[in-house]
């Protein structure tokens, strides 16, 4: 099973006015703008069906993941500003922020009340925050 992938996104167009960066092409159900303090942990969960993309605007973090069906299949990605990380379904993931950071979280499924909790299962990938509102694997 493919785990997370990271791709650095370069500007598609640059001139005296600034840059155009094409962050994402595809269907999204939800977009969130999220800030994280250095040393904090986010996620520690997996999605049953949702595909998640995280585009890092500023800062840095280490992304830890493993296959839910085979936890020994794991990896760590070092993510920097301008990178986008794709996390497929059934891959447990967590981020440890090594700098104060700002990112966009884009998902393929809507996250209105109930849908997020229905698709998201808490899973301790790294030591740190575990959402008490989620079912635990």
Break the fold down into its secondary structure elements and pairings.
Blueprint: E1 5-8, E2 13-15, E3 18-20, E4 30-36, E5 41-47, E6 52-58, E7 60-67, E8 70-80, E9 83-87, E10 91-97, E11 101-107, H1 115-119, E12 120-122, E13 135-136
Parallel strand pairs: 12-13
Antiparallel strand pairs: 1-9, 2-3, 4-11, 5-10, 5-12, 6-9, 6-11, 7-8, 7-10
Stretches where pLDDT is under 50 for at least 5 consecutive residues are none
How many H/I helices? 1
Shape: globular
Q: What would you say the CATH architecture is? A: Sandwich
How many strands?
13
CATH superfamily: Jelly Rolls
- The neighbouring-strand order within the major sheet is 8-7-10-5-12-13
What fold name stands as the CATH topology? Answer: Jelly Rolls
Question: What proportion strand?
Answer: over 45%
Distance between the termini: 19 Å
Query: If you average the pLDDT, what whole number results?
Result: 95
Using the coordinates above, name the CATH class: Mainly Beta
| Total individual domains | 1
Helix content: under 10%
Class based on secondary structure composition and strand pairing: mainly beta
Radius of gyration: 15 Å
The topology string of helices and strands comes to: EEEEEEEEEEEHEE
């Amino acid at each position: 099973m493919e785990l997370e992938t990271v791709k650095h996104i370069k500007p598609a167009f640059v001139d005296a006015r600034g840059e155009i960066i094409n962050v994402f092409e595809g269907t999204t159900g939800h977009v969130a703008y999220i800030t994280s303090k250095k040393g904090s942990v986010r996620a520690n969960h997996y999605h049953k069906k949702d595909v998640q993309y995280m585009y890092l605007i500023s800062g840095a973090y280490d992304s830890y993941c493993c296959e839910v069906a085979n936890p020994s299949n794991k990896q760590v990605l070092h993510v920097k500003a301008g990178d986008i990380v794709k996390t497929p379904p059934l891959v447990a993931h967590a981020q440890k922020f090594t700098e104060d950071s700002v990112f966009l979280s884009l998902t393929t499924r809507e996250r209105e009340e109930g849908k997020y909790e229905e698709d998201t299962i808490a899973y301790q990938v790294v030591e740190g925050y575990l959402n008490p509102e989620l079912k635990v694997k």
